[in-house]
Structure formats: C-alpha cells, structure tokens
Specification:
heterodimer; A: Lipocalin; eight-stranded antiparallel β-barrel; 2 helices; 20 strands; B: about 140 residues; about 45% helix; globular
C-alpha cells in the first residue's frame, strides 16, 4: 500500500504547491533566512529592478533624497529575528519589524526598524520611541540590477547583513547571543589540565595511541594531540555540562568557526574527586577514543 | 588521525536518505528549539519497541533498542531533540523507538539520545540528571 500511496502523495503535493494566482511582478517577492548559532534572521521583501534606470537614489521617480524608503518594494520589507541580536551595536528584541531607511544625498543614512508590519511602502511610519534607529553608511559597490539582501559574511558570533541596489551598498554588522561560553575561568580549568595518554580504537581491533594535552590558553580550556592533529590543532574545550565539553575548532585567524555539538563530547571522569581520564563520544554515544591522565 | 565528522556526516546523510524512503513522512521543526521533556506516562511499557534482533544486523543499534526496552518509563520522560517532536502522535523519545518503522532505526540523533539515556540510567543517574545531559549534548 505504501508503494502506491507514495507516488500519489508526491503528485498531490506538487499540485498543491502550484500557486493559485501566479502573477508576474515588477518586484518579485523574496525571502532570505540565515541562522547563526541558533538565531534565525529573516528578511522578507519585494525586489525592485533597476530596469535601465541610471539613477536610483536621488531620482524623483525612484528614491528621492530625504525620503523614508523601505529597501524593497510594495509592502515594507520586514526583518524577523528569533532571538535578541545587535545591529550595528544596537539591541533588537526578538520579533518582526518593518524596515526603513532615511536616504540622504550626503553623509550617513538612518536605519529604522518599526514594530508595525504590513505597511505599504508609500506610507512610512512616523518616528516613535518604539523604533530602533541608528546611522548607517552607504557606499559604492558593484552594480546590482535587482535589490538584494544577503548575508555574505558569517562568523560564530554574527555576520554582515548587506543591502545592494544599483551601485549603492549598505553593510550592517549583526551580533547574535552566543549559545555557549567559549572562555573559562582559570580556577575552573585547573582540574583538567595535564598530559593524557590517548587511545583510539579503530576497526579490526587496531588501536592508535598518542599524547593528549589539556592546557589553558587565552582564557580558554584547550586540547591538542601530539603529534599534532592536522584538523583539530589546538581546539577549545567548551563546557556544556559539569565535566562535559564540546570541541570548538579555530580558523587561521584564531576564531572559533565550528563547535562539534552534539557530534563529539569530551567527558572527563573523576576518581575520588580528581580528574583522571576522559572519553570522547560521538553523537550516537559510541566511544571514539579514551585517555588516561599521565601527569 | 582520521577526522571522524566528515565520515559521520556522510553516514548520516545516507541514513537520512534511506529513512526518507522507508519511514512514513513526519513533520519536522527546527532543531534549534529544544523539545520540553514530557512526563512519563503511568504504566508505559516497551511493548511496541522492537527487540534488537529485529532491527537489522548492526549490533550497536540492536543494543540501543534492547536497552530502551528495559527502561521505557525513563525513555518516556525524555523529549526528542531531532526535530520530530512536533510530528503527529509523538509523545517522547520512546515514540521514536516504537513500531516497525521506528524513526530511531535510521536517525542518528534518536539513536544517540537513546544510547545516552541507557548508559546514564545504568550508571545510576536520575531522570532529571539524564534530561540535563540530553539538553547539554543535544539541546
């Protein structure tokens, strides 16, 4: 029965997915969603095209100077954030906001987030203390035919939100709330520090033994193998529970770029209160390797 | 030293693809929001959980299913963090282990949570301690 129902289900889904009122629009709708460390950031907007218009900003027919303009078309562009963020250092609470820019011929523009959404672009909101407002700095960029919101740069703690249209580009730094604390007080790190003999059980009964060190560097508990592991190098041990740590690997600039949670968990074991060994377990809880304290 | 995660990702993707074909569709939600832990249902049993020898030739997977069968009252108090908690008929991690098409047969997260619950319960940890461990690792 399942074999016959599944193709029918696929066809049904395909039919239902067809829009009931397909329409060609000058400014087609789009959605950009980016998740960073569990914070979901969504821009929903309509995308006007340049359509051969040489001047977009400052044109009486497109975006006039000193206009309160939604960076999109039709209904106001919206920004939705699932958790608190900072935009250009300004706190933004979780929620959905209509997005506006006060565009000026020279100097900085003003970025405005208004709690009222579903506003047509011709009716920008008045200033209010419920808005988030801060200066932004437009600059020249490569020509972009269709107004585009994007997140071209992502870090562990945020990214860059960019609006481009024509030869104008606006970059805004987004900071998200970290889900984990990377650093650790030295006193808390002390029980784990030392040299361990690491053993990894491989298939067919073979074992690989190496030295494993737990050290305290740059206010962070770190581990590394000797000889050096070409992938992990010195990796952060990020506490997720008492005596449990998730490995965080660094890029060449020394910034965390990935935390292996739940992929790997380093579980330290105590004997009479003293940390004596550890296990590295995978997300399926199987033991990937073990280590015993030497010093 | 071989980097394990790349291989694991491949296995997970392969399992996921197979599961999509073999397991009835279940609505999922984002993993970022941990599921709350349910209250174990009084009198719950593992009657719907397959024995290890019924889930294939993987002895590790078989051990997890057999372990879950010994402690349904604990597994029933754990919310699943794989994204299946919003699906119809879901109650707890135990749901993931129930039936011929149990999601845990192909979902590495369900398997990992089940294995962790079994290990910690055998180590004498309380349900609250197990919940905290699940949240720390998978939440």
């Amino acid at each position: 029965m399942r074999c016959t129902m599944r193709p029918l289900s696929v066809i049904a889904i395909a039919v239902l997915a067809c829009p009931a009122n397909a329409q060609i629009r000058a400014s087609e709708p789009a959605t950009v969603t980016q998740t960073i460390d569990g914070t979901k950031i969504t821009m929903q907007y309509s995308r006007p095209r340049a359509r051969g218009r040489e001047t977009l900003f400052g044109s009486p027919d497109v975006v006039r100077w000193n206009e309160v303009w939604t960076p999109g078309a039709n209904y106001a562009t919206t920004l939705e954030v699932s958790k608190p963020v900072k935009l250009e250092g300004h706190p933004v609470k979780p929620g959905t906001y209509s997005v506006w820019m006060v565009v000026r011929q020279s100097g900085e523009w003003t970025f405005v987030l208004d709690p009222n959404v579903r506003i047509y672009h011709m009716f920008p909101p008045d200033s209010s203390d419920r808005q988030v407002r801060f200066p932004i700095h437009p600059h020249d960029g490569p020509f972009t035919e269709v107004l585009t919101w994007s997140v071209p740069e992502i870090r562990a703690d945020g990214g860059t939100l960019v609006m481009q249209w024509g030869r104008t580009r606006v970059d805004m730094q987004v900071e998200v709330e970290p889900s984990l604390r990377i650093t650790m007080d030295e006193a808390d790190a002390l029980p784990y520090l030392g040299e361990y003999t690491f053993t990894r059980n491989r298939r067919a009964g073979a074992t690989v033994t190496s030295k494993f060190f737990v050290v305290y560097e740059q206010n962070t508990l770190k581990g590394y193998w000797e000889p050096d592991d070409a992938y992990y190098h010195h990796f952060a041990l990020i506490r997720i529970a008492p005596d449990w740590f998730a490995p965080g690997v660094y890029d060449e600039q020394g910034r965390i770029y990935e935390v292996y949670r739940p992929d790997m968990t380093v579980e330290f074991k105590r004997e009479e209160g003293r940390v004596m060994s550890l296990e590295i377990r995978m997300d399926n809880d199987f033991v990937w390797g073990t280590a015993k304290r030497v010093h | 030293m071989q980097h394990p995660v790349v291989r694991r990702e491949f296995v997970r993707v392969a399992f996921g693809a197979a599961a999509a074909l073999l397991i009835p569709f279940r609505t999922t939600r984002a993993m970022s929001a941990p599921a709350p832990h349910p209250t174990p249902r009084p009198g719950i049993t593992a009657a719907k959980v397959l024995r290890g020898d019924q889930v294939g030739n993987d002895p590790k997977l078989a051990a997890i299913f057999d372990g879950v069968r010994t402690m349904p009252e604990i597994v029933d108090g754990i919310g699943c963090q794989c994204g299946c908690a919003a699906s119809e008929g879901f109650y707890s991690l135990l749901t993931c282990y129930e039936g011929e098409s149990a999601m845990a047969r192909g979902c590495a997260i369900c398997q990992g949570q089940g294995a962790l619950v079994v290990r910690l319960h055998r180590d004498g940890k309380s349900l609250d301690e197990i919940r905290r461990a699940i949240d720390a690792k998978f939440g």
